[in-house]
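ok new one. same drill as before - structure tokens go in, u give me an amino acid for every spot. 421 of them this time. try not to just spam alanines like last time pls lmao
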């Protein structure tokens, strides 16, 4: 029964250890999958950042082109208005000349045909051609402006879509970070549980060492073990020394209780043997008396005499029971062997638990480093976005100021040209 119990006690921790190993393998596989997912998300995020930067640069170029086209359009409008004013002035002068010619039908002074009426149609044709060219250029510029505005709308829509995707990716990344934090917390809890199990196993090993030390005080085989245990206790002065001493004392009193129990069982066995021998002697004496009174002489055969003699010898003179020291030695040697076996199992479990805890600590450190790296990347990306927004606002403000200054200069130049003409 004791062997069955020990086998059951050995199989139960093995099953627990197998469960722990399966859970650990599952967690490791999940961690690898999560690492791959995080790397994929980081790559996608980097691609989206690059696309966003490219779109931002293209947007700046289109804005600059639109600003330049608007400036040219204003120049052309001012030029066309100036040409229209010149045309109106020229037409008014021509009408005045025609009216003056019609009024002076028979005048004394007939002016010779000057070159002005010959030059006026050529100038009008040139001005008309220039006006047509300017109108065509203005139409082309307006069509270009419309195209640029459409492209700008498309780019703004694309930027809004990319911003939505980026927000979605950031949300997914936050979800992944929360999930990883939860898994890190679960791993930390698991690590704490394993550490508690390690402490329990260490205390169990200490109690087993104490039992073996108290049980083998009188045996010469375990003096070296006891000496090693005492040296270890003297060396390892930790906070758990008091607990170990208490467990040692409890093991000592447990051993004393077992010794008393063995003594009681030995005394009970000796008393039962003495009672049986007395009853057999009384029965034989009664039988001999009854046969003598009847005058019957009974002569049993040799076999019966021999068997009876052997039975009497076995009952009256029982075998010498083992001494107290021998019983204690055998019992505690068996216990010591069992404790050594359990100690070896516990040490192997402790080593496996230590390896698992070390691996889990490494995984936790890697996960914390990855989280720190992600936080740094997010902070750097946020700073880069802020810098880009500031640059965009400054460039837009500078372009607007330049355009306003150029328009003022063009207007002043057109006014000067009009005044000169």
């Amino acid at each position: 029964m004791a062997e069955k119990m020990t086998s059951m006690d050995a199989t139960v921790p093995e099953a627990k250890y197998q469960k722990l190993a399966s859970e650990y393998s599952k967690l490791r596989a999940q961690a690898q999958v999560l690492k791959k997912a995080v790397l994929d998300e980081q790559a996608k995020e980097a691609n989206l950042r690059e696309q966003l930067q490219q779109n931002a640069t293209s947007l700046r170029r289109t804005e600059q082109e639109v600003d330049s086209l608007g400036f040219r359009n204003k120049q052309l409008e001012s030029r066309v208005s100036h040409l229209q004013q010149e045309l109106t002035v020229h037409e008014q002068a021509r009408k005045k000349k025609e009216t003056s010619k019609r009024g002076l039908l028979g005048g004394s002074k007939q002016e010779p045909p000057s070159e002005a009426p010959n030059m006026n149609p050529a100038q009008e044709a040139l001005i008309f051609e220039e006006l047509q060219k300017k109108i065509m250029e203005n139409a082309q510029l307006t069509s270009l402006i419309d195209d640029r505005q459409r492209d700008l709308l498309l780019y703004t829509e694309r930027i809004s879509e990319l911003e939505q995707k980026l927000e979605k990716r950031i949300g997914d990344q936050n979800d992944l970070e929360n999930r990883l934090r939860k898994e890190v917390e679960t791993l930390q809890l698991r690590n704490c549980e394993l550490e508690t199990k390690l402490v329990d196993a260490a205390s169990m090993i200490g109690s087993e060492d104490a039992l073996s030390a108290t049980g083998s005080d009188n045996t010469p085989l375990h003096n070296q073990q006891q000496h090693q245990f005492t040296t270890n206790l003297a060396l390892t002065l930790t906070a758990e020394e008091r607990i170990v001493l208490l467990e040692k004392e409890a093991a000592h009193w447990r051993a004393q209780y077992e010794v008393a129990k063995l003594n009681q069982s030995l005394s009970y066995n000796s008393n039962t043997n003495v009672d049986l021998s007395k009853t057999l002697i009384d029965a034989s004496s009664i039988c001999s008396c009854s046969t003598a009174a009847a005058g019957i002489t009974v002569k049993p055969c040799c076999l019966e005499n021999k068997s009876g003699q052997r039975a009497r010898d076995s009952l009256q003179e029982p075998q010498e029971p083992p001494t107290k020291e021998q019983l204690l030695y055998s019992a505690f040697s068996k216990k010591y062997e069992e404790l050594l076996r359990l100690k070896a199992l516990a040490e192997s479990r402790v080593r496996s638990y230590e390896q698992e805890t070390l691996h889990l600590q490494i995984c936790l450190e890697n996960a914390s480093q990855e989280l720190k790296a992600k936080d740094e990347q997010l902070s750097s990306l946020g700073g880069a976005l802020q810098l880009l927004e500031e640059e965009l606002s400054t460039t837009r403000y500078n372009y607007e100021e330049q355009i306003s200054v150029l328009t003022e200069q063009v207007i002043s130049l057109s006014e000067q040209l009009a005044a000169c003409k």
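The two ends are 128 Å apart (CA to CA). and btw Residues 190 and 210 are 30 Å apart (CA to CA).
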